[in-house]
Design brief:
The structure is a homodimer. By secondary structure, chain A is an alpha/beta fold. Chain A has 11 helices and 10 strands. Chain A has a 6-stranded mixed β-sheet with strand order 5-4-3-6-8-7, sandwiched between helices. Chain A has a two-stranded antiparallel ribbon with strand order 1-2. In chain A, strands 9-10 form a two-stranded antiparallel sheet. In chain A, a hairpin with a 6-residue loop joins strand 9 and strand 10. The longest helix of chain A has 20 residues. The radius of gyration of chain A is 20 Å and the shape is globular. The interface between A and B is medium-sized, with 19 and 19 residues.
Chain lengths: ~300, ~300
């Protein structure tokens, strides 16, 4: 029987060739979270205890663990859930988030894309039918969460992006020499003037598998429902799969690759594109026509062909 | 039935989702070879018609096709075969090379590591038992071929390294952020003073599969024997396999990745290590103790631990 690599007791968690007993696995996950907050391999700390942080909670395992860990470590957080109204998927998400809020006694702020921002996601998808839906939804979520963060006057937005998200994104980008992604992907995106709030990804050192095991072990509720709009937008999932297969072949290469990227990402920096203010909403945009991608998607504007 | 992408006739060659009739496949291979000579994506031409080129021919499919194509395109070449004395493997290689020489009526210069250079490969492997044998053999072959090239007063050494060799090497290097490899790998290595002859890899745009299909179609003899010392040195083959699997998943990504690397490889350049002259043989070396890797392997020197 495999023994825990930390204490030598019988192991109960087996991941990527490493074995832990459940006590040591908890210590391991918290240590990686703390090293994430400290910004190991990133070069600077993601967030300080004094800062006020909006935690974006979708109800999935990653954001629920993030909420739990930020709460447990006494960060000054405001959990925020954005209801997308994707039928049963969104109902389930809302339910999980509300239940966890009650369980730990911390209020969660619920916003609705429809009721609070007047956006009909179904309509947006129809209008932007040639664009991958995950990308469209991502643009809208990022924009609205930033807007909420500005209103709430927080110092940072924390999201549940994990090691597999970061590594597979960079893996795909490097296969295609996509300098746009390679120059800008980081667990720490600095703020821009008084328009864009700092964004951080404290779970960038923890894998899908580690977060799932931890959530189950700590009995943190989460929804495993797959978004009904995800079908047909599977490219990133595919590169996650491929990278995990390589990681089976060359044990540990996923971390070596991603942390190596984080340490060396400056080599991909090109001259910063000059940002303008969006003609419609005033937010920063690098778009040539001066209209930001959010307004292109949601406002009834002429240049639909460019979408 | 699949049709040739060039002429629309029934296709007989099917590679990476592309279909060719045999005539158009020959044109395709020669075009890639010519674009290789012109240095597409590399940034400068590999070799001119006036230059004298040593072609290193092992007897495998890649070097035999290289010999054939360089001969067919009237380059000023000297085919050179280095006998390593690896038993049946080497006997078979020698036989193939001699037969092809007779067939096309072009002399091949045969050298023996043992008789011409006094090196017993078996003894070297025993001495350097902690180093991968392919690496040890590669160091010795590169050194001796360069020595032969200097004696023959050629302008360049051409080797049969193909797209899979280059792409998998860079793929492995980028997963590990191995800047040493990333900064120096190219189909064109410039000469260094009067010590290192220019090295070129004209087949860097043609895959394993393309070269095999072409050799078979043109009835170019080659040996498919696997080197008896290859066992246990399979890391690069493994990364070739993995990259080909990814190429099945994301069609064409192997070329996109490798050509993208070639166009952007300057970002990996670090300050050049200062080269010294080897204390034993006088060849350039970046080694701290001033003894080149060839002399460390083959001369009976003290610091065996460093090997």
């Amino acid at each position: 029987m495999a023994k825990c690599i930390r204490c030598g007791k019988p192991a109960s968690v087996h991941l990527e060739g490493l074995h832990f007993c459940s006590d040591c696995f908890k210590i391991h996950v918290e240590k990686e979270f703390e090293e994430g907050i400290e910004g190991h391999a990133v070069g600077s700390r993601l967030v300080n205890a004094q800062e006020k942080v909006l935690v974006a909670v979708s109800g999935g395992k990653d954001s629920m663990v993030l909420w739990y860990l930020m709460h447990k470590h006494n960060f000054n957080i405001i959990p925020v859930h954005l209801n997308l109204h994707y039928g049963f998927f969104s109902e389930k998400s809302l339910e999980v988030v509300k239940a966890f809020s009650e369980k730990i006694g911390q209020e969660v702020r619920i916003f609705s894309v429809k009721d609070d921002f007047g956006i009909d996601m179904e309509g947006v998808f129809k209008k932007a039918k040639n664009r991958p839906r995950c990308g469209v939804c991502g643009t809208i979520k990022r924009y609205l969460i930033n807007k909420i963060a500005l209103d709430l006057k927080v110092d940072a937005i924390a999201t549940g992006h994990n090691l597999d998200d970061g590594a597979s994104n960079i893996f795909k980008a490097i296969l295609n020499w996509d300098f746009e992604t390679l120059s800008r992907n980081s667990p720490l995106s600095p703020p821009y003037k008084d328009k864009l709030v700092k964004r951080i990804k404290p779970l960038y050192r923890l894998s899908d598998a580690e977060l799932k095991a931890y959530a189950d072990m700590m009995q943190i509720d989460y929804t495993s429902e797959v978004c009904p709009y995800k079908i047909g937008s599977v490219t990133l999932s595919k590169s996650k799969e491929v990278l995990n297969e390589i990681n089976e072949e060359f044990r540990g290469i996923k971390r070596t690759f991603y942390y190596g990227y984080l340490r060396n990402r400056d080599i991909f920096k090109k001259e910063e594109a000059e940002l303008k203010e969006c003609k419609i909403c005033g937010m920063p945009t690098s778009s040539e026509d001066g209209i930001c991608s959010f307004c292109k998607l949601t406002k009834d504007i002429e240049n639909e062909k460019e979408i």
